[in-house]
Amino acid sequence: MTDWTHARSERLRLDRPVAGDLADLHRIHADPDSWTHFPQGRHVDLARTQQTLDRSDVEWGRGLGYWCARESDGGPVVGMAGCAVVDDAPWWNLYYRFDSSVRGRGYALEAALRALDAAHDVDPDRPVMAYLLEVNVASRRTAEKAGMSLVWSGPDAGNDDPDAVRLVYLDREPDDAIRTALDDRFRVDPTV
């Protein structure tokens, strides 16, 4: 198994977050532009971003977590992306969020592809899931271009928008155990 704490893609440096990344991560996660499709997820205070950073240690303790993404020439953190096991789920969660100043450059796809490589290396039997809102077309395109397939859709329980629909993409066809876990996690019948 490869050590994935530091990885590279064509245009990105991907590194395990450290305490010094807090301000950059907060800037990205506090930006309302980053949460257009899910405003309630926005980090309104530094403590929320610190929790994300603290959780990173737990995730990396399982072999893999979300990276801080920088452009290959260095500089500030421009995004957070990668795969992590969240809440002991039986799948990797694929995550990508980038600063609005660099969106549209394909960085999310570049990081997602590298994250899939890492997840398949660390635990190839654990599927990779992308969990996103139906209205977030850019995120859907990223998941689809990364080779993931839609396996579940339904109401987004707990969302402030009662009409919100969640989509779940996986990197493989779900087996019965994963289908049951999806049904249990989202507490609605799959429509796909």
TrEMBL record:
<dbReference type="Pfam" id="PF13302">
    <property type="entry name" value="Acetyltransf_3"/>
</dbReference>
<dbReference type="InterPro" id="IPR051531">
    <property type="entry name" value="N-acetyltransferase"/>
</dbReference>
<protein>
    <submittedName>
        <fullName>N-acetyltransferase</fullName>
    </submittedName>
</protein>
<dbReference type="InterPro" id="IPR016181">
    <property type="entry name" value="Acyl_CoA_acyltransferase"/>
</dbReference>
<dbReference type="InterPro" id="IPR000182">
    <property type="entry name" value="GNAT_dom"/>
</dbReference>
<feature type="domain" description="N-acetyltransferase">
    <location>
        <begin position="10"/>
        <end position="172"/>
    </location>
</feature>
<dbReference type="GO" id="GO:0016747">
    <property type="term" value="F:acyltransferase activity, transferring groups other than amino-acyl groups"/>
</dbReference>
<keyword id="KW-0808">Transferase</keyword>
